[in-house]
């Protein structure tokens, strides 16, 4: 009697282990690999978020003077901030969308680097952002490839002429703000996709 009583927790433990084993092994095999990809994308987004704030190199006071900047870059992605927007989506569709946005931002940033260079403005933050956007894009492309999906290419954006230093600063501010919103949205999307794919919490 005593023996059975003592072994009860042990048996319970075994049952839990078996249950865990069944659950892990019945998971679709791609699930752990998509989790790896999603986990690597988040730090890239965080780096881009940090760099987005420094694209223009302006202080808060200087920014205030540029606050009423018109939106002139028509092809910069418009992000729908509402959560409902991505709860209805599948992982493949969300990643395709993220890929198109990432590419579009990279094309805009690369254009900005040239414009900044032309007017002898610092290009390092934009170059950093471009490098991390490329890494993010590659990670998304590879994970889509593993899901046997082809990634959609962003169409080449139409870009205005940057005619003065002031112009370039305005464009930097516009891209900086939009990139920030994009990073915010991407981070939430990636966390959502982690839940959808039942990725272990870290
Ligand atoms: C995503 O995958 C589903 C099947 O899981 C498929 O029906 C759908 O067409 C795919 N979407 C895209 C954009 O490839
Ligand atoms: C930078 O200058 C080059 C040479 O003048 C010009 O072709 C290019 O369009 C300029 N880039 C931007 C983004 O203004
Ligand atoms: C980022 O998202 C949070 C909520 O998730 C929101 O409060 C904040 O205003 C957002 N920031 C930007 C710049 O979109």
UniProtKB/TrEMBL annotation:
One of its GO terms (molecular function) is cytokine activity. Residues 1-26 form the signal peptide. The keyword tRNA processing does not apply. Keywords: Signal. Pfam families: IL11 (PF07400). One of its GO terms (biological process) is positive regulation of MAPK cascade. The keyword Protein biosynthesis does not apply. GO terms for cellular component: cytoplasm. This is Interleukin 11 type b.
